[in-house]
């Protein structure tokens, strides 16, 4: 007769404990069904979601104790999850990513992709919670280092590349936060370090784009490079973020007929004000371009209660366009005072919504500075990754220019709170712009991609 | 007000969970009854219980999504779809787990 193994002795009571949790969760479900009051219903649903999250954690722990999952499985499960996500089986992908994370809880790539799959499955509650954890782990600072600038000469050991506008923008943002007393005055010294490095880069002849910093250069920043120093509350509002007075039916009809349109007053006044404040105050712009703009994505800290409220509302307002098209990517860009922005490219989604946040009085070229839309899509025989990931490459630009030579151009002038809705695969680019100089006046936009690129191809066929 | 479809889905999710709980209890009894199971039966039984428990959670998630859909009214279609698919996945996981458990139980009974 076999002896019971130690993990069996541990695991069986764990499984029985899970069964008890599940029985309690079912009681909770039954109790919730009888609730009529809306606010109480919301609280009850939240309690159910918490119970589900607890069960998942316990089930994963039991599986590890039983040896059903091991760290070696993590990579394979993640790869299988990636393939399922690509094929559109989001629930299957979620399951694989969960198993992968059960085997290796610190597997950032699996957690990252799990949040994408969760967003595609409209599970914003868990996606939001996981995004917060990822941000804290990847970009967080200790409480002491958040409180004041601690000049300890430390280094995270991560390779970090910089470009001039990224350094300028970060120093300006830190000064804005110091001046508005949102962070300690000692951070003024950190802003000085950014300015010193910016001056140093300006003196270098033949500086390589996206300049890699040396260890001694990184140590000048004492571990604050690419970390989140301050983040606004970004809380959901008690009132709408999307303007409820817009004629959404007319927008949907025009979009379905033309595949591209723009309209005014997308956000409510409190909505645009709250978004501007969140982006102005939050040091979450980690992506940057030598074309002099910085960017923040959902994974970088852009995701917050306010942004999830916006996503929920826009989906509810445009059901005929966004049905079966969950958000798949979203970013905010902030640009230097003048420039050409992004060259012609396509979005990796089905439907794109773009809108501008900066007040109109900052735009110095009325009737310009927005975007240019072309009436041609990405040719199916071209490699999408090459066209879009290497869009700044001269050869790619020449090929795209030849493709767009006979395309019809529509210039959409910059306008605060103007929404532009279009099929993601249509080529588009930033219209050259000139804005007032200075941090609060910088041209800023948000772009949201809904659905998948192959969904779009099917729709166009 | 909940539509009849949503009500039926909700009931279905609850019934699936109820059945799965009984399957689970059977598996525990089998594990307790056999002082120590040998491989590969022990592992198959564990995998069965694991699948059943994951399936129950999926069905619960589906039931929550359907309640959210009912609250959202016209905008609740994605949640309704999510809930329906989650319940279906839960049902499949429970079925697979239950089959694995039943094979082991049948084997134990015949010994």
Structural summary, described in words:
The complex is a heterodimer of chains A (461) and B (111). Chain A is an alpha+beta fold and 461 residues long. Chain A folds into three domains: 6-139, Tetratricopeptide repeat domain (Serine Threonine Protein Phosphatase 5, Tetratricopeptide repeat, Alpha Horseshoe); 143-219, no CATH class; 248-460, q2cbj1_9rhob like domain (Jelly Rolls). Chain A is built from 17 helices and 14 strands. Chain A has helices at 6-33, 38-65, 71-87, 90-103, 108-120, 124-139, 143-147, 164-179, 188-203, 215-219, 248-258, 269-281, 305-317, 319-322, 384-389, 394-403, 453-460, and strands at residues 161-162, 211-212, 260-263, 287-289, 293-297, 327-335, 338-339, 351-356, 371-377, 409-412, 419-423, 426-430, 433-434, 444-450. In chain A, the strands form four sheets. Chain A has a seven-stranded antiparallel sheet with strand order 3-11-8-14-6-5-4. In chain A, a hairpin with a 3-residue loop joins strand 4 (287-289) and strand 5. In chain A, helix 3 packs parallel to helix 5 (108-120) and helix 8 (164-179) runs antiparallel to helix 9 (188-203). The radius of gyration of chain A is 24 Å and the shape is globular. Chain B has 111 residues and is mostly helical. Chain B has one domain (4-16, 38-110). In chain B, helix 1 (4-33) packs parallel to helix 3 (77-110).
Fold topology:
The complex is a heterodimer of chains A (461) and B (111).
Chain A: H1 6-33, H2 38-65, H3 71-87, H4 90-103, H5 108-120, H6 124-139, H7 143-147, E1 161-162, H8 164-179, H9 188-203, E2 211-212, H10 215-219, H11 248-258, E3 260-263, H12 269-281, E4 287-289, E5 293-297, H13 305-317, H14 319-322, E6 327-335, E7 338-339, E8 351-356, E9 371-377, H15 384-389, H16 394-403, E10 409-412, E11 419-423, E12 426-430, E13 433-434, E14 444-450, H17 453-460
Helix pairs in contact in A: 1-2, 2-4, 3-4, 3-5, 4-5, 5-6, 8-9
Chain B: H1 4-33, H2 41-72, H3 77-110
Helix pairs in contact in B: 1-2, 1-3, 2-3
């Amino acid at each position: 007769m076999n002896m019971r193994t130690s993990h069996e002795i541990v695991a069986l009571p764990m499984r029985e404990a899970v069964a008890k949790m599940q029985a309690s969760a079912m009681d909770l479900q039954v109790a919730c069904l009888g609730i009529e009051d809306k606010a109480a219903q919301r609280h009850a649903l939240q309690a159910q979601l918490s119970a589900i999250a607890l069960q998942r954690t316990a089930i994963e722990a039991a599986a590890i104790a039983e040896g059903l999952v091991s760290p070696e499985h993590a990579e394979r499960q993640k790869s299988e999850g990636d393939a399922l996500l690509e094929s559109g089986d989001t629930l299957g992908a979620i399951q694989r990513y969960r198993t992968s994370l059960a085997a290796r809880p610190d597997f950032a790539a699996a957690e990252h992709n799990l949040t994408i799959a969760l967003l595609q499955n409209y599970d914003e509650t868990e996606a939001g919670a996981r995004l917060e954890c990822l941000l804290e782990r990847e970009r967080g600072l200790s409480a002491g280092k958040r409180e004041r600038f601690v000049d300890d000469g430390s280094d995270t050991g991560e390779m970090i590349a910089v470009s001039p506008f990224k350094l300028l923008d970060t120093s300006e943002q830190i000064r804005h936060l110091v001046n508005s007393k949102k962070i300690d005055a000692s951070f003024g010294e950190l802003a000085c370090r950014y300015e010193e490095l910016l001056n140093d880069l300006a003196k270098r002849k033949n500086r390589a784009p996206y300049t890699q910093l040396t260890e001694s250069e990184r140590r000048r920043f004492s571990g604050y490079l690419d970390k989140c120093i301050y983040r606004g509350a970004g809380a959901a509002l008690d009132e709408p973020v999307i303007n409820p007075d817009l004629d959404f039916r007319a927008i949907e009809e025009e979009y379905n007929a033309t595949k591209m349109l723009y309209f005014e007053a997308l956000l409510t006044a409190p909505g645009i004000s709250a978004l501007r404040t969140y982006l102005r105050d939050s040091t979450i712009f980690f992506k940057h371009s030598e074309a002099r703009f910085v960017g923040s994505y959902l994974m970088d800290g852009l995701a917050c209660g306010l942004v999830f409220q916006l996503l929920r509302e826009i989906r509810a307002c445009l059901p005929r366009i966004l049905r079966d098209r969950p958000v798949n990517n979203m970013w905010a860009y902030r640009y230097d005072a003048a420039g050409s922005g992004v060259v012609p490219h396509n979005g990796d989604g089905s439907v794109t919504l773009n809108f501008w946040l900066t007040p109109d009085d900052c735009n110095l070229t009325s009737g310009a500075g927005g975007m240019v839309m072309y009436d041609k899509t990405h040719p199916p025989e071209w490699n999408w990754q090459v066209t879009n990931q290497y869009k700044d490459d001269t050869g790619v630009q020449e090929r795209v220019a030849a493709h767009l030579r006979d395309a019809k151009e529509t210039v959409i002038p910059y306008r605060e709170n103007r929404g532009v809705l279009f099929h993601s695969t249509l080529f588009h680019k930033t219209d050259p712009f000139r804005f007032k100089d200075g941090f609060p006046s910088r041209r800023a936009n948000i772009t949201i991609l809904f659905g998948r690129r192959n969904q779009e191809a099917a729709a166009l066929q | 007000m909940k539509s009849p479809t949503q009500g039926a889905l909700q009931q279905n999710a609850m019934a699936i969970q109820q059945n799965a709980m009984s399957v689970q209890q059977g598996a525990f009894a089998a594990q307790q009854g056999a002082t120590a199971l040998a491989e590969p039966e022990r592992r198959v039984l564990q995998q069965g219980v694991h699948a059943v428990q994951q399936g129950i959670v999926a069905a619960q998630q589906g039931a929550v999504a359907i309640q959210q859909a009912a609250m959202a009214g016209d905008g609740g279609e994605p949640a309704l779809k999510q809930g329906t698919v989650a319940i279906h996945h839960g049902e499949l996981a429970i079925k697979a787990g239950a089959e694995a458990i039943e094979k082991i139980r049948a084997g134990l009974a015949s010994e």
